[in-house]
Automatic annotation (TrEMBL):
Origin: domain of life: Archaea
InterPro entries: Ferritin-like_SF, RNR-like
Protein name as it appears in the record: Ribonucleoside-diphosphate reductase
Length: 314
């Protein structure tokens, strides 16, 4: 029988712990990427895109966005494992386990959307049918961002210092989950929802309620992921002596890859507002986590997207 490493506790779980509370929130907000996203919504999205006046290039812009999201969810489902393996606190282990499960659910949603909407629309419109793994959708900055994240996570298996762990959280929870994903949501909400921000674009907007429904539910999960990562980095700085400059420098270095990911050649959408949005998110995250006395925002605020649906109702 395996011994319990932490012999200081009387019960298995700490009901008052930060991670324990976030785990309970994950259980409460559970959703099914098949049952809770009605097929009728996806069929409506499909018909709207078929009827929508758009060029192959404009449609490929949507495909690229969804390919990036899908690949990102799949990558973090794989790359988060080292962090779980080196974590000893049972409450944090449980939360990270729920996070892995949720990343897998997100991967399922994007796969389902591609099969149910994207491919049928391409066939109906006479566009080239492409795979969501086609390398045309992933530029050098996107690949570099995820390669560096994988490296930061793998480092934990050999050198699990407070600074190494802070870097890992910065890569995954604070940049990929928070800044990159938030910027992507902002762009999707602006272009494919009636409630989104009015961004400059050469593309005539089309409302995709099925896509927005899935994105809204994914955001409700990732609010927890971002909050947990911010809490851990803030704790590592305050309690473990991690230099705040390490955090700031890591975030600023990776911000260049975020900007390069959203600013790509031949995009029909002006990327300037997206880069500004990402920069604002990065600055706000740095401000909070480097202040030991700063309170973390509630989950709903952490994943707030201008014009987005209220995820507290999801």
């Amino acid at each position: 029988m395996t011994q319990i490493e932490d012999t200081s506790r009387d019960h298995r779980l700490d009901a008052e712990s930060f991670a324990g509370g976030y785990f309970r929130n994950a259980v409460y907000r559970h959703w099914d990427p098949y049952e809770d996203i009605p097929q009728e919504l996806l069929e409506e999205d499909r018909e709207r895109l078929i009827d929508h006046e758009q060029t192959a290039q404009e449609f490929d812009g949507l495909r690229r966005t969804l390919a990036l999201f899908g690949a990102g969810e799949e990558a973090v489902t794989e790359d988060l494992t080292p962090l779980l393996l080196v974590t000893k606190d049972i409450n944090k282990q449980m939360f990270l386990t729920s996070q892995l499960y949720e990343e897998a659910k997100h991967t399922q949603f994007f796969d389902r959307y591609w099969r149910s909407v994207i491919d049928p629309v391409a066939e109906a419109r006479g566009f080239e049918v492409t795979n969501p793994t086609d390398q045309r959708y992933f530029n050098d900055d996107y690949i570099a961002l995820f390669d560096k994240t994988e490296e930061a996570m793998q480092t934990l298996l050999e050198s699990d210092t407070p600074t190494d762990r802070a870097r890992a959280y910065c890569h995954y929870h604070l940049v990929i989950e928070s800044v990159l994903a938030q910027t992507g949501y902002y762009g999707i909400q602006s272009n494919y929802s009636s409630t989104g921000a009015d961004l400059p674009s050469a593309v005539e907007p089309v409302h995709l309620d099925g896509l927005i429904e899935g994105i809204t539910r994914i955001r409700s999960d990732e609010g927890r992921h971002v909050g947990f990562g911010m809490h851990e980095v803030q704790r590592l700085i305050a309690e473990e002596g991690v230099d705040p400059d390490v955090v700031q420098n890591t975030l600023q270095e990776l911000m260049g890859h975020v900007a390069g990911t959203v600013d790509y050649k031949d995009s029909p959408v002006d990327s300037t507002p997206l880069i500004e949005y990402a920069s604002e998110k990065t600055a706000r995250r740095i401000e909070i986590i480097t202040d030991a006395d700063a309170d973390l925002p509630p989950i709903e605020e952490l994943v707030h997207v201008d014009g987005g649906r209220d995820i507290s109702q999801v």
